[in-house]
Automatic annotation (TrEMBL):
Swiss-Prot/TrEMBL keywords: Hydrolase, Magnesium, Metal-binding, NAD
Keyword Hydrolase annotated: yes
Enzyme Commission number(s): 3.6.1.22
Cofactor dependence: Zn(2+); Mg(2+)
The protein, known as: NAD(+) diphosphatase
UniProt organism field: Brevundimonas vancanneytii
Keyword NAD recorded: yes
GO BP of this protein: NAD+ catabolic process; NADP+ catabolic process
Family under the similarity heading: Belongs to the Nudix hydrolase family. NudC subfamily.
Length: 307
């Protein structure tokens, strides 16, 4: 991968062809080498080891004793089975059964402090648990569903319908205009963001829409610009709750942008030098997207002449 973003880089073999076998999965659960990471309401349990942060790993049996069997199968690591267990409820488990094991952190903080592999594993687990909480009932007949395939599928015992984790594709793009004295890129601002924060434009794809079409539609809707060319940059799993950010560079035909005042309250054109100032936090008014976001990677790539 020429560009690898935070939350990608999960090193586990997901064993998609094996986890459907209940007997095989039972063998993995009984394996004495089986390990489990822990989450609480989407927050991974981490610890400090030799000055660096990492996920806390417990034996599967220990994790099940703590989290009361609320677990899913994540995959294999060098042949050993890996699971995730999750606590639910408003009380931090480190004040009770998980005391002394580490601390639970929000996933965005985890994205900053954890190694790439740990962040990718934690993101996968969070998305699966979020999906399970939201899909306890069959969309076809309304009956309660059962977990299958180690948590990667739910099956309705009443009508037999199978349900699989949903991934929502989102186009996220950096509009670029090349028709002036020097190239410029466009950032937008939502009213709810911290003061000065600006970022790339983004929006969910719609049914029957190609990636390029979604990019062009969103740029027109949010900034009133016509897209003439779209280039793929990279993608990012985004576990809030389960999106796939499709990073793009979108060339536009004019620099006469107009924020729609619904999704964006303001826009700003930046030269490459101004974009670098934003990234260096030396720009007088604009702050960059957070370091774990693909929007920042898009801006970095363009500012340094990679796109």
């Amino acid at each position: 991968m020429s560009h690898r973003n935070v939350f990608s880089g999960n090193p586990l073999d997901r064993s998609g062809d094996l986890r459907n076998d209940a007997a095989w999965l039972a063998e993995q659960e009984a394996n004495p080498e089986a390990l489990a990471m822990i989450l609480w309401e989407g927050r991974p349990l981490i610890e400090t080891h030799e000055g660096a942060e990492r996920l806390v790993w417990l034996s599967l049996g220990h994790a099940r004793d703590l989290a009361r069997d609320r677990d899913i199968f994540l995959g294999l690591w060098k042949g050993a089975p890996v699971f995730a267990a999750e606590f639910e409820g408003s009380i931090d488990p480190t004040s009770g059964p998980a005391g002394g094991l580490g601390r639970f952190v929000e996933m965005r903080e985890a994205a900053i402090v954890l190694p790439e592999a740990d962040a990718g594993i934690a993101a996968t687990a969070k998305s699966l648990f979020d999906w399970r909480r939201r899909h306890g009932f069959c969309a076809a007949c309304g009956k309660a569903t059962d977990q299958a395939s180690g948590g990667w599928k739910r099956v309705c015992p009443a009508c037999g319908t199978e349900h699989f984790p949903r991934v929502d594709p989102v186009v996220i793009m950096l509009p670029v205009y090349k028709g002036g004295a020097e190239p410029v890129c466009l950032l937008g601002r939502q009213a709810a963001w911290p003061e000065g924060r600006m970022s790339a434009l983004a929006g969910f794809m719609e049914p029957g829409e190609a990636i390029e079409e979604a990019c062009a539609r969103e740029v027109m809707e949010e900034a009133g610009l016509t897209v003439s060319d779209v280039r793929y940059h990279s993608s990012q799993p985004w576990p809030f709750p389960a999106q796939l950010m499709i990073g793009l560079i979108a060339e536009v035909t004019t620099d006469e942008a107009a924020p729609d005042q619904t999704e964006l309250e303001a826009v700003a054109w930046l030269t490459r030098s101004e974009a670098r100032a934003v990234l260096d936090e030396t720009h007088p008014t604009i702050h960059a997207p957070p370091p774990y976001a693909i929007a920042r990677r898009l801006l970095e790539s363009w500012a340094h002449g990679e796109d």
